[in-house]
Amino acid sequence: MNRLFIIVLLCLGSFPYTSQAQEFKFGVKGGVNKTFGGQLTGIASTAQYTGDTFNAEGEIGFHGGLWTQLSFGRFFIRPEVVYSKLESRFDFPRRPAIYAVDELSVPFLVGFNIWGPLDVYAGPAYKKVIESSLEGTEPPDQSIVVQNFPLSAQAGVKVEFGSFGLDVRYDHSLATAENQQVDIVNSVYGVNLANFEDARLHQVIVSLTIKLWDSANKDKRRRGGRGCYF
């Protein structure tokens, strides 16, 4: 994963030198994400243990990262590198438990400018799960297998006004549901052994973007001397 991260950064840095006839820009982004998904069913081995199915309730997480965009007329490609913190909540009989996932994603998006500041885009995203956990498991550090395929599909819209922008997208995991057994502290949560039938998380992602550099303004900055950098 470290090698992939370095390759992506090298690719992003090489764009200004290979895109003299196009517009190139890059910047930073950050915001919130709302998760969907997650299903767990208790194993009722005896009458004292529940066999109910629990569907996770999405919590608000956060993300931050880098983006770059290379435009060809009204079309563009947009690679990104983003760190995300995802959380969902299982409402077990005695107390809730948080299902948490930290991931690094590398989206590669293709988009089209509809009008003025409004763009639409879609594309795949490579996902690397850094850490995953469910509160109340035994042992406490039991890792959850979030995905068996490292890609998701993303689609969204964005608007830009000067150096600032707003980006809203949907991220859908392309992994398949994979059953795994977890052992939960029954005395605390009211669930004992359980089948974690679907650990995948999908997201709605809302980001604020900030443009740090734009090749379209390069000549203006040179002529303007002390003018605005952006």
TrEMBL record:
Signal peptide span: 1-21
Taxonomy, superkingdom: Bacteria
UniProt keywords, alphabetically: Signal
Name this polypeptide is given: PorT family protein
Organism: Antarcticibacterium flavum
Origin organism lineage: Bacteria, Pseudomonadati, Bacteroidota, Flavobacteriia, Flavobacteriales
